[in-house]
Structure formats: C-alpha cells, structure tokens
Amino acid sequence: MEFNTKIQKPAIVMQGQELFKVAVTSMADAVDLVVEKAGLKLEDVDCVVPHQANDRIIASVAKRAGVDKERFFINIDKYGNISAASVVVALCEAVEEGRIKKGDKIALTVFGAGLVAAANIVEWSY
Fold it and tell me: Which of 9, 40, 61, 67 has the most neighbouring CB atoms within 10 Å?
C-alpha cells in the first residue's frame, strides 16, 4: 500500500509533539499558579485530578509539577479520553473509591481545544 505523502492545501496537520509539550507545560503551570494563589504549597494538595488525555501526558505533568504520580487520580484506562467529562468522571470515581475525603484539598487541571488550560483548588466538604 502506498500513501500520498504530499499534503494538499488547505489542510489541517496535527503537530503531536508540540501539542504534547504545550499540554504538559500548561497543565503543570496552571496547578502551580492556583496552588500559589490559594496560599498553599504542593504538599498541601491531597489529590490531583487531571484531564485524562493520556497517561504519558499525566506522568509528565506530575513530573514537571513535582508531584508524585501516586497523588494523581487516573482512570483513563477505563474510558479513554472522554474530553470535557474526564475530570468530572474522575473526580466522582476518586470520591467513590475513598481517594478523596472530607477536608481534602484537590487540584483539578484541564487542557483542551483551542490550547486552553485551567486549574482550580477545591476543598472537599462532603
């Protein structure tokens, strides 16, 4: 089988390595920023619930942020990347599994379309 390696214009071309770098940097930096704005240190965060894009991105975010990957809640192996729902589903499962308890401080971090990243800190009260 032969593939046409010439890209016809106009065309959309995925820049996977660059997107990976932007996702990792953006999510890790967003966590650092919200932790600082909340007057906390990374050690104060009990659990990080990231967008479940892929395990390699999550591992790299953990490394860049300086947070042990064991403190991240990961369920991508169950559902794959379910886009905007991934953090909400992961948060719900983390609570159901007892990984998040009343009084815990949780960092939620996302990355998505338009190269947009965000994070927030939640103190769990249930």
Answer: 61
**110 occurs within a structural domain:** yes
Q: Would you give the distance in Å from CA 83 to the centre of its chain?
A: 11
Range of the domain at 40: 16-123
Write the CATH number for 110.
Answer: 3.40.47.10
pLDDT in tens, 15-58: 889 999 999 999 999 999 999 999 999 999 999 999 999 999 99
Burial 62-80 (b: 16+ CB within 10 A, else e): beebebeeebbbbbbeeee
Phi, psi of 8, rounded to the nearest 5 degrees: -80, 140
The CA distance from 64 to 60, in Å, is 6
Domain count, the chain: 1
pTM for this entry: 0.87
pLDDT level of residue 5 (50, 70, 90 thresholds): low
* pLDDT on residue 91: 98
**Residue 65 is which amino acid?**
A
Q: Collapse the DSSP code of 120 into the 3-class scheme (helix H, G, I; strand E, B; otherwise coil) and give the result.
A: strand
Residue 114 lies in a domain: yes
